[in-house]
Specification:
Blueprint lengths: L1 E4 L5 H11 L3 E4 L3 E5 L10 E6 L2 H7 L13 E3 L2 H10 L4 E3 L4 H13 L8 E7 L6 H7 L3 E12 L5 H8 L3 E6 L2 H14 L2 H5 L3 E3 L2 H9 L5 E3 L5 H16 L1
Parallel strand pairs: 1-2, 1-9, 4-5, 4-7, 5-6, 7-8, 9-10, 10-11
Antiparallel strand pairs: 3-8
Length: 248
């Protein structure tokens, strides 16, 4: 029996390694494909800080960060995974929030209250093409001057790998891991197109957040489990709970 990981490449490889270390057999079906968007900063703004909600936003512009003189700035990131990407890219001052956009907003606002970051300052928001919330608008409403730069997009993958379709047909997949609303929707669309939606939704769907789980419940999933906190270790704990329940 296998665990299906829908996370995009290259992060899915690290997830697969972690699951194998726990004794699981893993299938990979990245349902979104990372596509960098050319970065042209024509604002010539004097930035005080950078805000990032995804490691992909940093990966997309990593080759340009030094020439754009951005590595000297403090970068506020959504969680530890994005923090690792920021450090790998060369940022020295990385401020880590609690794993989601709300925690990131609160971290930046606390920095303003502590006078570490001036409230009227200009911040650069490195973002994806599809945003789940308008963080730039929220910070703007708080008095910040936010410059949003789209650095990447995640394009839906239309088809599931053959071995994944065969796994669903043979009831050889025991759970699916989901990391975002967009990837959950892309998974549903691909499963529907492949004719395996019913068998795919009949098994546990382990989700990084309640908003991700709601997409799957709305589609008919009866076993949508949510990680206690928005991080991968908690998601793995939800997976183990799901598997114990199935064996009980």
């Amino acid at each position: 029996m296998s665990i299906l990981v829908t996370r995009p490449h290259p992060d899915n490889e690290a997830t697969a390694d972690a699951l194998r270390a726990r004794g699981h057999v893993v299938l990979l079906a990245p349902v979104l494909k990372f596509e960098p968007v050319p970065f042209h900063d024509e604002n010539e703004a004097n930035y005080s800080a950078i805000i990032v909600t995804s490691a992909n936003a940093i990966r997309a512009v990593a080759p340009q960060l030094r020439e754009l003189d951005l590595l000297r700035l403090p970068v506020f990131v959504v969680g530890e995974h994005t923090a690792a990407a920021a450090r790998d890219a060369g940022f020295a001052e990385v401020i880590v929030a609690g794993g989601d956009a709300v925690a990131l907003r609160d971290k930046v606002m606390q920095s303003a209250r502590d006078k570490v970051l001036k409230k009227k300052s200009t911040v650069l928001y490195l973002a994806g093409a599809d945003l789940s919330r308008d963080l730039g608008g929220e910070f703007g409403a708080e008095g910040f001057n936010v410059v949003t730069q789209t650095t990447y997009r995640m394009a839906p993958v239309k088809h599931l790998p053959r071995e994944v379709c065969e796994g669903f047909a043979a009831h050889g997949i025991e759970a699916v891991l989901h990391y975002s609303r967009r990837s959950a929707r892309a998974f549903l669309e691909a499963a529907r197109d492949e004719g395996v939606e019913i068998s795919a939704l009949a098994i546990p769907q382990c989700c990084l957040s309640e908003t991700v789980a709601s997409v799957l419940r709305d589609a008919g999933a009866s076993q949508a489990l949510v990680a206690a906190t928005p991080d991968e270790n908690a998601l793995f704990d939800a997976l183990e709970r799901a598997l114990r329940t199935r064996l009980a």
